[in-house]
Write a structure and sequence with these properties.
mainly alpha, rbstp2171, three-stranded antiparallel beta sheet, 5 strands, about 55% helix, elongated
């Protein structure tokens, strides 16, 4: 673009001829005559609303008021307020002012009701579990009361006092097949393991079966003592089942079972 210099009075003006694009850019940001007239009309409207007569400006003074007073909304002002309200509703949630409600009152009530229902359901499930355990215990105690030579409640309480409050367990296969037992302690388990190691060295017995029989004999509280005939004449799965529940209550768990009882803090 050619540059020219021209002296205007005591000032030197330097510039050049604008291109068509530059002229259009300047026109887009310039205030047009129509914009000026529109603004004047809005100003006149506001003056008239305030009680001042623009047609008789020489004879009328501006109204005196005791203090600021909100004017009644005009159609134009209502339209502007509606536009601003619509604009606010279009703001994304992440840009809304802090503290803005994310749900209406009905949704909050519904969420609170759902939470209370969930808590009530959980409480009912816990109560049902406790009630089921109590019912099963009552049935077993009734079964023992009808079994000749079975321990009574006083004997069971004495075992619990000696071995621990949670150390007495019962397994009922059915009438005539009820067994009361306790769990193994670590020292007892090591002693049994030593006996099995010696038996394995002599090779005189099946170590696995001998281990099961020794654990069941050692931990069973009633019937006691278990006769030799019991290990031959009882139903085939009784000894194995007793052995498994004794180990389980002694906390011999598989990795999967141990993981189910583990959580991260």
């Amino acid at each position: 673009m050619p540059i020219s210099a021209k002296q205007v009075g005591e000032t030197l003006a330097v510039g050049g001829e604008l291109s068509q694009d530059q002229v259009q850019a300047l026109s887009s940001i310039s205030v047009s005559a129509e914009d000026v007239l529109t603004n004047l009309e809005d100003l006149n409207d506001e003056i008239v609303e305030s009680g001042y007569d623009v047609n008789n400006a020489e004879q009328q003074a501006l109204p005196k008021t005791a203090g600021p007073k909100a004017a009644a909304p005009t159609a134009k002002r209502v339209k502007k307020q509606q536009s601003k309200s619509a604009l606010r509703t279009q703001i994304p949630p992440e840009r809304q002012p802090k503290g803005a409600a994310n749900m209406d009152f009905d949704q909050e009530l519904e969420a609170a009701a759902n939470e209370l229902d969930a808590r009530a359901t959980s409480a009912d499930a816990d109560a049902a579990e406790v009630e089921g355990a109590d019912t099963m215990k009552g049935q077993i105690m009734e079964l023992l009361s009808n079994t000749p030579g079975a321990p009574n409640l006083a004997t069971i309480e004495r075992w619990k006092a000696q071995l621990g409050k949670n150390a007495v367990h019962v397994m009922a296969f059915g009438e005539g097949d009820v067994y009361i037992f306790t769990h193994l302690k670590r020292g007892q388990w090591k002693k049994i393991q030593e006996l099995m190691a010696k038996a394995q060295e002599t090779g005189s017995t099946d170590v696995e079966d001998a281990l099961k029989e020794k654990v069941v004999t050692y931990c069973t509280l009633w019937p006691k003592p278990l006769p030799v005939e019991f290990f031959y004449n009882s139903k085939a799965g009784v000894v194995d089942s007793l052995y498994q529940v004794i180990l389980l209550n002694s906390y011999f768990l598989s990795p999967q079972q141990a993981m189910m009882l583990t959580t991260q803090l």
